[in-house]
Specification:
The protein is 80% helix and 0% strand. The protein has 46 residues and is mainly alpha-helical. It has one domain.
Length: 46
């Protein structure tokens, strides 16, 4: 399960290559990616 989640994160191009110099911006993109992954998973279940 953990490996699949990490693979989903790596599927997000913005997270694959760390463009941001500030960590808080990168952390915000991680939060956004988590929301997108969760939304796609929930949409598939409903």
């Amino acid at each position: 399960m953990i490996e699949r989640t990490i693979a989903w994160y790596h599927g997000m191009k913005r997270l694959r290559i760390h463009w941001e110099r500030r960590d808080d911006i990168h952390e915000a993109f991680l939060g956004l990616a988590t929301c997108i992954i969760t939304y796609r998973h929930v949409r598939r279940l409903c």
